[in-house]
Design goal:
heterodimer; A: 362 residues; alpha/beta; Rossmann fold; 2 domains; seven-stranded mixed beta sheet; five-stranded mixed beta sheet; 14 helices; 20% strand; globular; disordered N terminus; B: 374 residues; 43% helix
């Protein structure tokens, strides 16, 4: 099943026109395009292209992170940039994650648009003070007079024994904090559009990139384009239940949906694309149609974004639910290394289909 | 030259080395007037703080620490950036941000510098390139980024970070010093070493005072000096700013000074006896304003009439600021989201296309797999 087919079923034009309560009436960009020239790119190449185009469009855009200026770049996402833009704008940074974020804040104050890369999100935890005490509340405490367009790319490992210090997604932490936006692109198309939207927006943004998605390929428009925050996408249309799948759970959810279709369970898969803000309207509209809600979240279950999605649906339309909601998350445990334990720890399409099937037939 | 420590300064007694030799008289008067204005301002705020309790936020007064802000006021231009700690009022005024808006901010009013949202320890004035914050080393670390931005833009702008010795208990400040040195950033670190973190003396937290010696080992030019000699402070910061702007990299200035009042609020907080009366008196005997005033009077640079006229003007400004603050309205936030996140994106509107219709081919059967390695 391709997205082309699922979009036909849903009618993507209508979907994108749907107004979100979070961004009531966005201003149109100067250059709307309806039939863009496309090229086949991997997720990593889409991120590289977005960065390259952003740096071409605005000399105030610059990149910071460990090893960003080495041949090959960060998993192919920064390849060729230092040769083209120089090592001042493509800055290899000391292993000093705290001051890297503070440096980005200061640079943004004087008008720059920094992009930070953390090869693993886990290292970024050193910068929590800069993120929580400074970056997130800068606009607030200036009473809206000073905004910080800082983009932080954080890569999350999964599999090949990444273990507990190379695999944490922590999007729920970041999404909990006012003043930060959090995106979790799954497709190359979304990766490029959300990265560009972050760089040229006015708010601090964390983009969580799951390493396992980096080789995914699809057609991506050549032009620099934007994907607005708080706009979910229906990845597959269905009648029986709404499966809200976040980040790395999306491809798994789509495959599980195919398996479930063979068992006559018609699953609608919704990808929120950004978890802060999250498209509550689109989620509720889908649940209104299906009456059932499952959330697949690549994170620990308790106090997760999955919990938040269930809460917001329950508040708005709990009486319309035909079954108790279901969460499919990781156990409330740190990530094991051994490959046999990884198989136990991470849900796959079979275990997801099984969980949904037994829940559905209860 | 003997190493300066807090002990050596209190042992030395009354300071007698403040010299106006070869110093511009107009500049001396500016330094003096700024310190007098700051002192009057802080004392007036102290009197109003309790028991009126109309300023309902933590306020950290800087009485006794006027010299560094005075020097910065004389030396910094409008386009330069200043970042500082929670004891912020001196720095705020150093960047010529308006006193009225400072007072209104403390009263939590709509007309405050930050609309009453930030208060004393988080006050900023973006229009004057002034920012503060309460988490000790955080603002100093951010100053490195401002300096980097100025360097990348090839702008002749200097950034100054003001912080206390307690900020150097925090690791990020050392990361900041390292990066500033590595990139020769146009930043000046000014450490007001006032000996105490709330009640805790420096030597209970660090192996020695004399942070400047440790910073020097990072490849940063540094100097320790008596921070209540405003002339020396001015000369050191002037030199540092000149070198930073010339592309010679950062300077670290450790100015030994002392706060007269408690950590927070106007009253003494010596209930636990963390510092002796003798120590406080020794520092009061070395008041930065009195030291300069004595030298000015000796040189005939200040008469009693001139001082009285200065005080008249300053007190009128203070009275006006209280009036402004007290009669202003309280704020009213109706859109909590908008004050946290901007809903406009002019740059994206200008540069990025809206894709109205797109059908990306995305094959869900593609391998989704962590690459081998990391």
């Amino acid at each position: 099943m391709s997205i082309r087919q699922s979009n036909r079923q849903k009618g993507i034009k209508g979907q994108l026109k749907m107004e979100s309560a979070l961004y009531p009436s966005p201003k149109k960009s100067a250059r709307p395009i309806s039939s863009p020239a496309v090229q086949k790119l991997t997720y990593a190449e889409a991120l590289q292209q977005a960065t390259n185009q952003a740096m071409e469009l605005d000399e105030r855009v610059f990149l910071m992170g460990q090893l960003v200026d080495y041949r090959g770049g960060v998993f192919g996402t920064t390849t060729g940039l230092s040769e083209k833009f120089g090592t001042s704008r493509v800055r290899d940074f000391p292993v000093a994650e705290s001051v890297m974020t503070s440096t980005a804040i200061g640079a943004a104050i004087v008008g720059m648009r920094p992009v930070l890369v953390h090869t693993r999100l886990d290292f970024m935890i050193y910068s929590m003070d800069a993120l929580v005490n400074w970056l997130s509340l800068w606009r607030f405490k200036s009473n809206g007079k000073s905004s910080l367009p800082v983009t932080i790319r954080a890569i999350v490992g999964k599999g090949w024994g990444q273990g507990p210090q190379h695999s944490k997604s922590l999007h729920a932490w970041f999404a909990h904090i006012p003043g930060l936006r959090v995106a979790m692109p799954v497709t190359p198309f979304d990766a490029k559009g959300l990265l560009l939207e972050s760089i040229f927006g006015e708010n601090p943004t964390i983009i969580i990139e799951h390493r396992s998605l980096f080789s995914l390929t699809e057609d991506v428009p050549e032009a620099p384009y934007r994907i607005r925050f708080g706009r979910a996408r229906i990845r597959r249309s269905g009648r029986d239940l709404t499966l809200v799948a976040i980040g790395a759970m999306v491809p798994i959810a789509l495959r599980a949906a195919e398996m479930l279709a063979a068992r006559s369970i018609d699953v609608e898969v919704l990808d929120p694309r950004t978890v802060s803000p999250i498209d509550a309207d689109a989620i509720c509209q889908s649940v209104m149609k299906t009456g059932r809600l499952v959330v697949a979240d690549p994170a620990w279950q308790s106090l997760s974004v999955a919990a938040e999605v269930i809460a917001l649906v329950s508040e708005k339309m709990g009486d319309r639910l035909r079954a108790n909601p279901l969460r499919i998350c990781y156990p409330d445990s740190h990530t094991p290394m051994s490959s046999t334990l990884e198989k136990e720890y991470y849900p796959d399409e079979s275990s997801m289909a099984e969980a949904i099937s037994s829940w559905f037939r209860r | 030259m003997t190493t300066i420590t807090h002990q050596s300064l209190t042992d030395a007694g009354v300071y007698r080395d403040l010299s106006l030799q070869g110093v511009d008289a107009g500049m001396v008067k500016k330094l003096y007037r700024f310190m007098l204005r700051l002192r009057q301002c802080e004392e007036a705020l102290s009197r109003e703080y309790h028991p009126a309790d109309e300023m309902r936020c933590p306020v950290h007064f800087c009485i006794g620490q006027e010299a560094v802000p005075a020097a910065l006021n004389v030396l910094m231009r409008e386009k330069d950036y200043l970042f500082c700690h929670h004891r912020s009022h001196g720095y705020y005024l150093a960047k010529d941000a308006p006193m009225r808006e400072l007072f209104a901010e403390l009263y939590g009013k709509k007309t405050g510098a930050n609309g009453g949202i930030a208060g004393s320890q988080d006050v900023s004035s973006p229009a004057h390139n002034f920012f503060s914050g309460a988490i000790l080393a955080g603002a100093a670390a951010i100053s490195v980024g401002a300096a980097l931005g100025a360097q990348m833009q090839k702008e002749s702008i200097v950034t100054v970070a003001g912080f206390g010795e307690s900020a150097m208990d925090e690791g990020i400040l050392w990361e900041a010093v390292n990066y500033a040195a590595l990139c020769k950033l146009p930043v000046v670190f000014v450490c007001e070493n006032n000996k105490y973190s709330v009640f805790s003396p420096q030597l209970k937290r660090q192996i020695t005072d004399n942070l400047s010696a440790r910073v020097a080992s990072f490849g940063v030019k540094s100097v320790a000096l008596f921070g209540n000699d405003v002339i020396k402070v001015h000369a050191a910061i002037k030199n540092a700013i000149g070198e930073a702007l010339a592309g010679h990299g950062p300077w670290f200035i450790e100015a030994y000074t002392y706060r007269w009042c408690g950590h927070y609020g106007p009253e003494s907080d010596d209930i636990i006896g963390y510092r002796t009366e003798a120590e406080i008196e020794a520092w009061k005997a070395n008041c930065p304003i009195a030291l300069l005033e004595e030298a000015m009077k000796k040189k005939g640079l200040l008469t009693d009439t001139e001082k009285a006229e200065m005080l008249r003007q300053i007190n009128a400004e203070i009275a006006d600021s209280f009036q402004f603050a007290k009669t202003s309205d309280f704020p009213n936030i109706t859109n909590w989201r908008e004050v946290n996140l901007s809903s406009s994106s002019p740059r994206a509107d200008e540069l990025l296309a809206d894709i109205d219709f797109i059908e990306p081919e995305f094959d869900v059967h593609q391998a989704v797999k962590q690459a081998k390695g990391y």
